[in-house]
Specification:
The chain has 134 residues and is of the alpha+beta class. It has two domains: 34 residues, no CATH class; 85 residues, Rieske [2Fe-2S] iron-sulphur domain (Rieske Iron-sulfur Protein), CATH 2.102.10.10. Helices cover 16% and strands 26% of the residues. It contains three helices and ten strands; from the N terminus they run H-E-E-H-H-E-E-E-E-E-E-E-E. A five-stranded antiparallel sheet has the order 6-3-4-5-10, with no helix packed on it. The longest helix is centred in the N-terminal third of the chain and has 12 residues. The radius of gyration is 18 Å and the shape is elongated. It starts with a helix and ends in a 5-residue tail after the last strand. 15% of the residues are buried.
Amino acid sequence: MTAEIAGLVDSKQGMISRRIFIEPEIYEAELQRIFTRCWLFLCHDSQIPRPGDFLTTYMGEDPVLVVRDSAGTVGAFLNVCRHRGNRLCRADDGNAEASSARITAGPTPMTGGSLACQTCARPITANWTATALA
């Protein structure tokens, strides 16, 4: 399939076949070969500058919650309770201290405690820690 995909890109003329964007087989290959094997950009440091700031995004098809805690450390969590499958945060971004930001996990990272799903009360730990590139 690699040779076939390579034929869909004409780097000299800067053309990409629309098949790359619509064929399920190519999408599945990308999920397997890219999103499960290499570092992925989740957000820029400036998008969550203050303690309690968060945003939600995706790694392939996996929903992710990125949070800056009260110590300034950035952590990334799968945005789903692994016990019951509920979404932890439905907002796109915000601050955990703001009343409009509804993260269905508590205590918030601002309290210094660990996150716990409010639905099943089980602890949630960071799946990844942030790596800053200088």
